[in-house]
Every structure is written in C-alpha cells, then in structure tokens.
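Per reviewer request, we include the raw input and output of the structure prediction for the construct analysed in the revised manuscript.
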Amino acid sequence: MRRRLAFVLCAIVALSLPSPASAKQPVDTDPARGTLERYAADTWRSFVAMTDPDSGLPADRLHIDGTVSVQTSTTNIGGYMWSAVVAEAVGFIDRDELVDRLITTIGTLESMERDEDSGQFYNWYDHRTGERLTTWPPTGAPLVGRLSSVDNGWLATGLQVVRSSVPELSARAGGIYDGMDFGAYYVPERNLIARSIVPETGAKPCCYDTLGEVRIGSYIGIGKGEIPQRHYFGPWRTFPDTCQFSWQQSKPVGGWRTYLGVDVFEGAYHYPYTDEYVVPNWGGSMFEALMVPLFVPEEDWGQRSWRVNHPAFVRGQIAHGLEEAQYGYWGFSPADVPEGGYRAYGTPWLGMDPLGYPSNNDNTTVDPGYPGCPDSEPQPLPGPEDYTNGVVTPHASFLALRWAPEEVMDNLANLERDFDISSDWGFRDSVNVDTGTVSEFYLALDQAMIMAALGNHLADDLLRKAFVTPQFRGRLQPVMAMEEFANFRRR
C-alpha cells in the first residue's frame, strides 16, 4: 500500500510540473514524465557546474559547495558528450549551445596525449587543460599511464553518439573514434580483452573474464571489425559446475554449449528471494549489468539470453533491498561511501565473486555452500537485522528504468522524501539508509548514467539509435542471437 501511495503522489507532482519550453518530444500520457524531466534538468545542471568552459571537459566529481576535482577520466568525457546530446534533445539547451559545447570538448580531445600505436587515451587527465596526469591530485603520488579498455570504450561511445547526432562535428568525432584501435586489447590465446595496457613498459594486464560493464569495449571492437566475433563467447557466464570452481558464490545450474568453435558453460544462479535463475556478473552490481544496454539493445538481439536476464536481475536487486535486507530502498552499485571514500556495492547472490560485493558498509555477505564438494558447507544466511548501514545509490534505480518504471519512480520518490539527497544539481551519489548520511558529492560517471537512462526514456531511445550503426548491428546481432542462457531454458 505504501508503495502504491508513493507512486501516486509522484505522479501528481509530475503532472503539476511544467515541461521545458523548447522540448522536442510530443506530449504523452506518461504520468511520471514531468518528474523525469525535472530529474534530467537537475542532472544536466550538475554537468554545467562541473565542466570547464575553456577545455569543455567535466571534472570527475562536484562537491556540494561547488568545488570540483582536478582529475577527469575518459569515461567522464564520453558521458558528458552523450549527456549534452540528451540535454539538447529534451530541450534544456538549443542547437547552437550544443555545438558550441561539443566543439570545445572535441577540440581538447584532439590535442590530448594518447598512445600513438593504438590511438587509445590514457585514464586520467587534468579537466582544466586536458594534460595527462602523471601524479594523483591532491596527494602527488606517481600515476602509471594506463590505457583502459573500459574507459576508452565509454569515451568511444560518446564520440559515436556525437558523430551520429551532431552533423556539424560528425567528421571530427568520427575521426577520433575511427583512430581508436580496440584490437590492441585482444588476447587471442584466451579469447578475452586485457584490462589495460601500459605503453611505457608494454605490460598488458589480463584479462576481463566475466560479463560486466567491460563488454562495451568488446562490443565496440567486434562492431569495428578489430576483434573477432568469437570473442563474444570468451567471458564466463558462470564458472563451471565442478569442485574446482566451488569457491564461486553459488552452485550454478546449466551445461556446456559451443558457439563459433568456443565452448561456453551456460550457467545461472538461483536467487531464492525471487525464485528465479539469473546469469550473474562479477560483483552483483547494477552498473555491471545495465550500463551497456543504455546503448546496445541487448534484450532485442539476445532474445534467449539478455531479454530474460535483464529484468530478472532488476527484480533481484529490488528483492534484496526490500525483502532480503529490508532496507526499505534498493539500488546497489559502485558508489561513494557516504561517510567518505569509494567502494563497490552490489547484491551478493547476483555476483560470482565469492566474497560478494556487499550492499552495506558492514560487509554482510552470503555463503550458500557448494553441495557435493568438500569444505563447501553452507553457512547460516544473514537475516534482515544483519544488514546494517546499507548504502543505496540513485543511479542504480535509473539504470532499471526500462525494466521496472513504476518501482523506479517509487524508490526515487522514497529516497527524496526520506533523505536530503537531491538538489538543483540532481541526486547526490549515495546514502547510508540506516544513519541518513548522504554523500557530499555528485559523480560525473553516475550523472552520465542517469542522463543516458532519462534520454532514452524521454526521447525514444535517442542514445541507442545514435550509437548503433548498421555495421555494428551486422557484426554483433548475429552472434548475440545465437546464444541461449541457462535461465531461458528454465523459464
């Protein structure tokens, strides 16, 4: 009853708010639209506040007092670019401002140091100048120059969105995108991509071997023809059901299949609080599961895989927050520690990590054991009273907007009602739902995910349409369509 009431109140507020004067989207009957437009307008204001007008680069984080960090990442820059495209589409800025902003950003990117061999950018730059950081602000600790397959994937995503959406900058954005070789990360003997490359030493730390947000780099490499299609089947879905892998979070169900000559263990974990089978990611976080489908229509191309898994994952996150831990709120993903610092939060049952990404600061995890293997006896499961100092991050709710819109609106309304977590700059990064302590920061990465989810909802999948080219679809959709996840079979 409380949930239904909160949603009705949210809808009433939405109907009372004016839409942006220059919004390009037609009027519809979505009762939450006004509230979502308010969220988008506020989130865009945080990007305006954290972006240097001379460089066109966003800072990594914005403090509630208006000060910003020195550093930015390639992910942040990509996120700012697609957020600017959303802001123009929804009516917060006009075309001239969009072009002016992105001319500055693209101009800085063109001048920034990157690896000559691969065209890949380094991880960290000074957002005021675009200079590569060699020491970490403010400590001054030496910073190794790395090329990240994940961060470059998100920068490339922003560039492709600009290339498709802003004809005035199409050639320049496309030139940078085309010059980024994702094949540099491919490790053929393992059919995986490296986490990073260190150009100064030639080190190539290997590898990402589970399904997570890292698949954006894989998808771009496959879509550009720089990585073979068979790589799609390289990462583990779960680890195999053998005692050798009894350390994984749960005993999977499933079996082996072969695609394009690659043997794949199609496994899934049972989550008792929804009584569903879910193909996990490494940590059980929303970021790992649902950032990629902001741009890639996985559930459309993977009818027997992602179409089943994404909504099941969302239901699992909701059940963890509301039933298993009984926080009263949900949404668990890497975020600020409200009291200071940063860490990975998640839903332990939905991750392969044997320690699990906990959903709280007190590291409450689960160990259901591994029947049939020595030294793998189940441990007593924690009760709701054991989940103390739970941490919820709003961006995790926005990532679920496509699959559970009513539950998302309810959750966000409850967070706004109960905590000092939102302002004219959007949602602050996280909240300890036990103590009420709220992070003092807005993070560019998380604001970019929020803007992407809202842009797709308010502007008819704007970012998916901008990102996916016929070439990309032609190389990726056929391999995605081949697969059948274990939880598809068990429906």
